[in-house]
Amino acid sequence: MWEPLVVNYSQLDKVSFESILSEKIPAIVIRNFYDKKNCQTIASRIKNYNHSDFQNGKLKHIGPYLMSNTTNKKKYFEDAKDAQREFEKIFDGIKNPITHIYESIGDKFPDHSISLAREFKNDYSPAIIRIHEKGKSIPIHKDNVRYEGKEYALSDVDHQISCILHLQESESGGDLVMYNKQWKKQDERFRNIDFGYTSRLIDSSQVCKMSNFNAGDLVVMNPNYYHKVTEITGNTPRFTLGMFLGFYRKNCKIVTWA
Amino acid sequence: MTDIIWGNGSKVLSANSFLLNVTHRKQGNKQDYSDSEKIIMTSADLPGLPQNQSDWDEESLKTYIIDAFLKCEIEQRDESGVILAKVSHSGAGGY
User: How many CB atoms lie within 10 A of CB A12?
Assistant: First the structure.
């Protein structure tokens, strides 16, 4: 069976993250990873972040993401600087969820250092908050910085994993679906025009569907496996905070970015 | 409006040209495009490929072109049928 490991935050000390790196399981879901009240505080700050844009559904994310700036490093690093300031405001006075992820993952790899990725004195974006309104879905795709992030220094990481903290859930929809098939370059012939891949690519692959996420749950996954998010069908928008972790095994170093 | 075709690079022919297996065509293109087209890159926006054309070479171009999904914004088709185009990679990260 190819299915995620689901644990409560209190059981985290018994979990080996090597099972993700060695590709034995698709994901680890850590329930109650982050305080629900803090999630509510963050959600309310997101709604007020740029109120008119939020109400109009224009606000799709806070913070840049590298994959949309694959050939525009200057803009990415400028936006990343701005994002750091915005995150400071959004997390002001509460436990910073990014720090919480650092500490928790860091504990699982005591021989590794963990820090925000830097390049020529530029900080990478620490995270991205995504706002998914009703009707939004994310098609089948992969995230692979080694391929699409070639212009960035961290494209030489040995492993990449993805951490997604759920801050607010919709009433329905927004399930994470993972396929037991990893991306390879030849799969690019199955690409859709703007983003993602045709479903023919994963027709015969084992499927793993993760649903019923709650605010405060953290999903850790290998993003090189094809995955998608089903359509949000509830009226409440779904908020997530996402970041990637890159492992340099020889140097015992973990770097983070979004 | 510029004609646009998308597809996968199949063979590098020189330091600035390649064969494209065409998989998608923009609705409303003024010209017809076959399933395989020879492309000369007038400029490129591909991750890792230097902006300066004088830094391109046939061998390293293979890394960026072969199998990659490419967007070609067409400038013209020359008398021999070769397409001159701006070539870029498209797609943004998701979940």
Answer: 17
Cα–Cα dist A62/B68, whole Å: 30
Domain ranges of chain A: 5-257
Q: Do A185 and B68 touch (CB under 8 A)?
A: yes
Q: Nearest-CA residue of chain A relative to B4?
A: A193
Cβ pairs bridging A and B (under 8 Å): 75
ipTM summary value: 0.89
At the fourth CATH level, the homologous superfamily of domain A5-257 is q2cbj1_9rhob like domain (2.60.120.620)
Q: Which residue, A189, A256, A196, is CA-closest to A226?
A: A196
Nearest to B93 among A68, A150, A189 (CB): A68
Distance CA A154, CA A125 (A): 13
Interface touch A223/B21, C-beta < 8 Å: no
Alpha-carbon gap, residue B12 to A118, rounded angstroms: 35
For residue A88, give the amino acid letter: E
Are A196 and B68 in contact (CB < 8 Å)?
no
Q: Which chain A residues are closer than 8 Å to B68 by Cβ?
A: 185, 188
Task: For chain B, list residues with pLDDT below 50.
Answer: 94-95
Report yes or no: A227 at the B interface, CB cutoff 8 Å. Answer: yes
CA distances B47 to A11, A148, A156, Å, are: 41, 6, 14
B19 neighbors B9 (Cβ within 8 angstroms): yes
pTM: 0.93
> Are A165 and A218 contacting, i.e. CB atoms less than 8 angstroms apart?
yes
- B-proximal residues of A, 16-35, CB under 8 Å: none
- Mean pLDDT of all residues in A56-81: 90
Distance CA A4, CA A231 (A): 21
Q: Do B90 and A67 touch (CB under 8 A)?
A: no
CB A181 within 8 A of CB A187: no
